[in-house]
Structures are given as C-alpha cells and as structure tokens.
UniProtKB/TrEMBL annotation, chain A:
<keyword id="KW-1003">Cell membrane</keyword>
<protein>
    <submittedName>
        <fullName>Cytochrome ubiquinol oxidase subunit I</fullName>
    </submittedName>
</protein>
<keyword id="KW-0472">Membrane</keyword>
<feature type="transmembrane region" description="Helical">
    <location>
        <begin position="131"/>
        <end position="149"/>
    </location>
</feature>
<keyword id="KW-1133">Transmembrane helix</keyword>
<feature type="transmembrane region" description="Helical">
    <location>
        <begin position="223"/>
        <end position="241"/>
    </location>
</feature>
<feature type="transmembrane region" description="Helical">
    <location>
        <begin position="190"/>
        <end position="211"/>
    </location>
</feature>
<feature type="transmembrane region" description="Helical">
    <location>
        <begin position="338"/>
        <end position="363"/>
    </location>
</feature>
<comment type="similarity">
    <text>Belongs to the cytochrome ubiquinol oxidase subunit 1 family.</text>
</comment>
Automatic annotation (TrEMBL), chain B:
<keyword id="KW-0479">Metal-binding</keyword>
<feature type="transmembrane region" description="Helical">
    <location>
        <begin position="6"/>
        <end position="25"/>
    </location>
</feature>
<feature type="transmembrane region" description="Helical">
    <location>
        <begin position="300"/>
        <end position="325"/>
    </location>
</feature>
<feature type="transmembrane region" description="Helical">
    <location>
        <begin position="199"/>
        <end position="217"/>
    </location>
</feature>
<feature type="transmembrane region" description="Helical">
    <location>
        <begin position="229"/>
        <end position="248"/>
    </location>
</feature>
<keyword id="KW-0812">Transmembrane</keyword>
<feature type="transmembrane region" description="Helical">
    <location>
        <begin position="260"/>
        <end position="280"/>
    </location>
</feature>
<feature type="transmembrane region" description="Helical">
    <location>
        <begin position="157"/>
        <end position="178"/>
    </location>
</feature>
<comment type="similarity">
    <text>Belongs to the cytochrome ubiquinol oxidase subunit 2 family.</text>
</comment>
Length: 479, 331
C-alpha cells in the first residue's frame, strides 16, 4: 500500500505535532509557577490568607498543566532517538550534554519541590513552603535554559568542529555553546512569553468567573496580580523580540525575509508590508499594503537601509552550500506560514499590552468599572487562549525558518531521519499520539473549566475546618 | 576503551538501577490500585504513598536516557530507533499513568475515578512489563547492520525469553510495591500486602529459575562471563530468599531493601553481560562496542565534572524529600 507518505514527512509531522502540543503546557507551567509563587509570596509578606487561597486555587491549574507537560516531555526526549537516529549520531556529542544536564539539574529540582509543595501545606511554615514553589519555578526556568541551549546550537552552531574521521560534529568549547548569542535572545523571549501565558491564562479565567459574579473579591485580586505580571512580561517579550529580530536579520536572513514576505530586495528605505499576497511557486510578491520606513525601523532602528529578499539569499545559499552537500537544494522556507505567523505573534503582543493596561485601569480598587464593562471581561476571557497561538506561531517561525536544515548549514533534515523506521511504524505512532493528545487536551480543558466553575469556595470554607491532608499531623500514626 | 568510557557505561547503569529501584515500587504500587486496594479509601492511601515522589522517581529514567545520549549517542540512536514500537507503547503507558494520579483526584464520579485508576494500573503494568521485555530482547541479540541500525521483526522482540523477562520484571516490581506499601501504611492494607506477598514470592522463585535457564540458552552470558554471571544469578536468588524471610518473619525493611536490590541486581546482570558492548547484534561483527559508541573525550570529561558536582546536591534534597514524608499513612 503506497499512500504517498515518506518517513521524512511523517517524522516531521510527528515532531511538529508533539512539540506544539508539549509547548502548550511548557510555557503555561513556567508562567503559572511564577504567578503562583508571586501570589504565595504576597501571602507571606502581607499575611493575608486570601493570597494563600489564591496560590492554592491557581496552583490547581498549574498542577494539571505540569502533569501533562511532564508526560509529553518524555516523548520529546525519546523522539530524537526513535525518529531522528542519524541526527542523534551526528549531534550526540553536542546535543546530549544539555539534555542530560537539564534532567540532572532542572527536572529533579522541579519534580522534588513540586511534590513538597503539593503535600507540604501543613508540614512547613509559610516561608519554607513558599520557598518550594520558588524552587519549582526556578527549576522550570533552568530547564528552559538548557533545552534552548540545545535548540540554539541547531539554529546557530558554535563551539564545535567536524571530526574528519567520523564526520560527526564534536564539541570544542562548552562555554561557546552556552554563550551562543542565539541563546541569549531566544531564552528571554521564551521566558517572557511563558510569563505572558501564565498570567493571561489566570487573568482570562478570572474574567470568566467575574462574568458569573462569583467570588468577586477573590477574582478581582487575582486579576490585578496577573495583569501586573502580564504587563511587565509583555513589555519584556516585546523588547526582547526586537533584539531577536535584529539578531535574526544578521544570522538567519532567509528566515527574516520570509517573515516579511520579501522576495526581492527591499531597497532603501524599506517599507513594511502589513499584509501581502505571495506567490510561493514563482517566488514573487503580487501585492502588498505597505507602510514606508517601518521595516528599516524594525530591522535596524534607522530610517534607511536595504533588507535582502529571499531570491538574493537563495542565490547566495546555492553558491555557499550546493557544492559542499553535493546536491542542488531548495533554500526557500515556507514563506506564507512564516509571514502570517509573525503577524499573529506580534499583533498578540500588542493586544496583550493594551488589554493589560485597560484591565488594570478598569479593575482599580476604587472603582467597579470592570464589573460593568462586560464586553471587556469577554475580551479578557478570550485572551486565555491567545498566548498559545502566539507561542505556537513563534516556534513555527523559528523551526520552519531553519529549512532545509536541522542544524543550520551543517545537516539537512533529510539526512537526520532514522533510516530503519518504517512508514507503518511512523504512521501508527502518529495516529496513537494524535489520539492521546486529543484525549489529554479535552480532559485538560474540561478539568480546568470544572476547577474554575467550582471556584475557591472549598478553600475558603476549609480555612475554618482542618483541611484533609494525608500527610497532616492528625492523619498519621506512629508505631 | 578509555576510563571515561568505562565510567559512563557504569554511570548509565547506575541511573537505570536508580530508576528500577525507585520507579520499581511506583510501578508496583500503581498495579496495586486495582488489585490489592479494594475500597476507595484504600486506593486513596496507596496512591498517596507515592504521591509526592513518583514524578521525581521518573526523572531517573529521563536522566538515564539523557545520559545515554550525552555519553553513547550510537547506543541511544540504535536502541531507541530499533525498539520503536515497544518504546511507543512504553511512552503511552507512562503518559497514561503519569496523568492518572492528578486526573483521578479531580474526578467527581465513581466512573471517572475508576477510569483513571485503570489507567494507572494498566499503565504501570505495561511500563514494567515492556521495559523488562525490551532489555531482555536487547541482550539476546538483535538484527543490526554495520551502520548500527536495527531492523527487528515481531519475533525478535516477542519471544519466550523476552516474555519471561517481562513477567519477571513485572513481578519484581509488584512485590517491591507490596513491600513499599507494608512500610508506608497501617492496618488492613499493611496486613493484606504481607498476605499477598507470601505466595507471590514462591512464584518469583520459579520465575527466576526459568529466567536463568533461558538466559543460559539465549545469551552468551554464561559462555563469555561464566563466573560473574553465575555470581549475579546467585545474588539474585539470595536477595529473593532474604526478601522472603522478611515476608515470613515480618521484617519490613529487610523485604523492601532486598526487593529493591534484586531489581538493581537484574540491571547489573544485564550490563555485566553487555560489557564491552552496548548493543548485541545477531551477527557479532555488528555489535556496537563501548569504545566505538561514545562521545569525544572532551564531552565525556565535561559531563563527568558536571554530573559529579550536581549529583551530590541533587541526592541531598531527593533523599530529604523522602525523609519529610517518611511516615505511615492511616487507612
């Protein structure tokens, strides 16, 4: 049976599917860990028990997200060996190290302290308990650092040589791998993006509850905390995004040209296309709505300068790589996807900043404007989902913009795939993951909605009675 | 073979040992959710015995996989792409049981709780069984070509030897889980775990004898390393005797430590037999050797420095978290 499927396309689809799904929960967990940690810190400082309940309540969403993030993360680690064994052989000397360090340094920290946090409410004083969520939160961020160190090498290989005998990449300088400039624009962008995700999920869910007019004080205070974090994080993500853009235009001009839908060189001064009609077959732009000078401002913070188009870069790449790899390759990246992804991502960023500011004004303590402007609560509610679109489109740009490379300029995607895995195996695994992810996604949404629907009533009530804790003092017996 | 390569072969073995010792009882406890525990309250208790720990225990597996990648990428690439479908099932099993504990606690109906209890029990069973099966098949020898790619057929993974290996590991994990429950609970659960362990230990003895015989016929362990293999098999039987004594004499710590050490002994037995290879090929010229499979001395040196400086710190808080929750749970 020939379905016209190749192991390469199936393995690529699987990588996209598993990574996108995993990366719903990664930024959510990193972000929620920080939001919950800040809430619990406010409780420790102000000694206002409302903030303890806040940390506990939003902690429930965090724990759900964390559980799904952990289990989908194991697939990521196994996948390099399962689907991309020739990649693993080529890159093992460099790629394995950050992965192992991530597990050793970050995963043990996160998983141990989250266990202590979950089950330790009655066993530790407030300050020590608060330290647990901070250690979990820091663990999640360290984890991001190591996995992005690995990704940054794939985007911009540094500190290595190619072993002439084995043909494999070999690390020559660990410090160069860590100091990779790609990492230090990518990591802050991802972290701020994660904080935006965590805070806007809390803000959006709080808004849904405010629409139902339940536990108004609790949710308005949650909204305030999350929107302040959200605003700071949005400003951070935009600022770092700007740094990253100016870095990408130098290091990966093809990726940048595609996000702007440029085929021909822009000439100076460069106009920015808000939207364009692109002909990806003939490599030309048919029409576009342009704003003069803006592309130069974005790219160089100047009012002049040429931005290279994909056609020029394609020619340069043919000259640079064709002979080296002994094949005539296509260097055009999926332009339309990158172009529209970039717009979804940046427009989301702008919206987050605007909504956070308006929200904080509406929600100020002296006014109940927020309760009367129901349309705004709906807008906020929709913002629960927007960060996921922004994160996903961001990664689509980063990863698809690397085409045709798996390691930029060193190894093509086609040479990375496992040669011994059959189409049938890959088809089965794709179907299985698709079903598992659909199921997990539905359960996640249902359980998050349910947690929100019940609200924090049980926590507020339980404050009077002793809470049930299997490890609490009363529940335990000594021999 | 350099000292660093040898060290990392041992370290990968240590990480897998840690994984089987710790996640071994997690898998066992997971299986008891739908066997030993008979009421909702009992199921709550057995889940709570591993509640704060199972996630960190599973990190031993992730670290073992990462360490394998960071030290022997040829091994990692060949093993993971070769045992594709088994690993896919293992992943599904780990996903199901991984989310089940959190999801079960949110269920409001008995049917919902029941579903996730089964997910935990079946996931735990499958993970233990399939890991046993995979490692048994790995030491038996698989069709591997000169590039290191394995193209195995159904009977290469699924045969009498690998099934017995899978059953043996499952049984070891189950008993290890019962021994853990004996340490962590009181009352009827504790008594029932003891009761159930008694007959199962006799089944385990029988299983170990069958496994040892099959090991003799299916691997080159006894011909290439007769003395060390024999010693390790004897140690396995001795540890099982000690655990049985711990059951009949009601020494809970003795049983638990012995069942944990017997899982480690199985890992050592397999790694000892593998040495100096990392993958055994049917055609012995294609077996992948430690000396050819590793990363450069630079990376191995780097990883050694990092691992040896981080591991002690990590072990301190890891063990501390057990000490924090070291108390029996009332039924």
């Amino acid at each position: 049976m020939n379905l016209g499927l190749s192991i390469l396309s199936l393995a690529r689809f699987q990588f996209a599917m598993t990574t996108v799904f995993h990366f719903f929960f990664v930024p959510l967990s990193i972000g929620l860990a920080l939001v919950v940690a800040i809430m619990e810190t406010i409780y420790v400082v102000k000694k206002d028990v409302l903030y303890k309940h806040m940390a506990q309540f939003w902690g429930r969403i965090f724990l759900l997200s964390f559980a799904v993030g952990v289990v989908t993360g194991i697939i990521q680690e196994f996948q390099f060996g399962m689907n991309w064994s020739d990649y693993s052989r080529f890159m093992g000397d460099i790629f394995g190290a950050p992965l192992a360090i991530e597990a050793l340094v970050a995963f043990f920290m996160e998983s141990t302290f989250i266990g202590l946090w979950m089950f330790g409410w009655d066993r530790f004083n407030a300050k020590i308990h608060c330290a647990f969520i901070w250690l979990t939160s820091i663990g999640t961020m360290i984890s991001a650092m190591w996995i992005l160190a690995a990704n940054s090498f794939m985007q911009n290989p540094v500190g290595f040589m190619i072993n002439a005998k084995t043909g494999r990449a070999q690390m020559t300088s660990f410090s160069a791998v860590i100091k990779n400039p790609q990492l230090w624009v990518e990591l802050p962008h991802v972290l701020f993006g994660a904080f935006v995700t965590g805070s806007f999920v809390v803000a959006g869910m709080a808004a849904f509850s405010l629409l139902r007019k339940k536990n108004v004080t609790f949710f308005r205070k949650s909204l305030k905390v999350s929107l302040i974090i959200g605003l700071v994080a949005t400003l951070g993500v935009v600022a770092v995004g700007d740094l990253q853009t100016r870095y990408i235009i130098k290091e990966q001009p093809m990726k940048f040209a595609a996000t702007e839908g440029l085929y021909k060189d822009s000439g100076s001064p460069a106009a920015w296309s808000i939207i364009s009609g692109m002909d990806t077959k003939n490599h030309k732009t048919n029409w576009s709505v342009e704003v003069p000078y803006v592309l130069d401002i974005l790219s160089y913070h100047k009012l002049s300068g040429n931005v290279k188009g994909q056609n020029t870069i394609n020619k340069e790449f043919h000259a640079k790589y064709d002979k080296k790899f002994g094949k005539n390759m296509n260097y055009y990246v999926p332009t339309k996807t990158l172009f529209w992804s970039f717009r979804v991502m940046t427009i989301s960023g702008g919206l987050f900043a605007l909504i956070a500011i308006v929200g904080l004004i509406f929600n100020r303590a002296s006014s109940d404007l927020i309760m009367r402007q129901r349309w705004f609560l709906w807008v906020l509610g929709i913002c629960t989902f927007l960060p996921f679109a922004a994160n996903t489109t961001g990664w689509l740009i980063t990863e698809l913009g690397r085409y045709p490379w798996v390691v930029y300029g060193l190894l093509t995607i086609a040479d990375a795939v496992s040669p011994n895995v059959s189409v049938a195996s890959l088809l089965i695994s794709n179907i299985v993951y698709f079903c598992v992810f659909s199921g997990l996604g539905v359960v996640m949404i249902v359980l998050s909605r349910r947690a929100l629907h019940h609200g924090p009533d049980d926590l507020l009530k339980a404050a009077d009675d002793a809470p049930y804790d299997p490890y609490g003092k009363g529940a335990l017996s000594h021999e | 073979m350099s000292n660093l390569q040898l060290l990392w072969f041992v370290l990968v073995g240590v990480l897998f040992s840690g994984f089987f010792f710790l996640e071994g009882f997690d898998f066992g406890v997971g299986m008891t959710i739908k066997s030993l525990a008979q009421t909702r309250a009992e199921r709550d208790v057995v889940i709570h015995t591993i509640g704060p720990h199972w996630d960190a225990n599973e990190v031993w597996l992730i670290t073992a996989g990462g360490a394998m990648f960071a030290s022997f990428p040829m091994w990692y690439a060949s093993l993971f792409s070769g045992f594709y479908l088994i690993l896919l099932l293992i992943l599904v099993a780990l996903i199901m049981r991984g989310v089940s504990f959190e999801f079960r606690s949110r269920m409001e109906s008995d049917a919902g709780r029941n579903f996730w209890e089964w997910a935990a029990a079946i996931g735990s069973f499958l993970a233990a069984f399939l890991f046993g099966m995979m490692f048994t098949a790995m030491v038996k020898g698989m069709p591997i070509n000169a590039h290191g790619d394995m193209t195995a057929h159904f009977t290469d993974y699924v045969n009498l030897f690998s099934i017995v290996g899978g059953v043996a590991v499952t049984l070891l994990c189950y008993l290890h889980g019962l021994n853990f429950i004996r340490l962590k609970t009181t009352g009827t659960l504790r008594a029932r775990a003891l009761q159930w362990a008694k007959p199962l230990y006799w089944v385990l003895f029988a299983g170990e004898v069958v496994f040892a015989i099959l090991l003799y016929f299916n691997t080159d362990f006894f011909t290439k390393k007769p003395i060390s293999t024999l010693i390790l098999v004897v140690v396995l039987v001795v540890l099982t005797c000690l655990a049985t004594w711990g059951v009949y004499g009601n020494h809970e710590w003795l049983s638990f430590i012995s069942s944990g050490l017997s899982l480690i002994d199985v890992v050592v037995l397999l790694f000892n037999g593998l040495f100096p290879r990392v993958m055994v090929a049917n055609n012995s010229v294609n077996s992948i050797l430690i000396k050819d499979a590793s990363n450069s001395p630079y990376t191995l040196h780097l990883m050694t420095v990092i691992a040896l400086s981080v591991l002690p710190i990590m072990l301190v808080y890891f063990i501390w978290s057990y000490w924090v929750f070291y108390k029996r749970l009332a039924s």
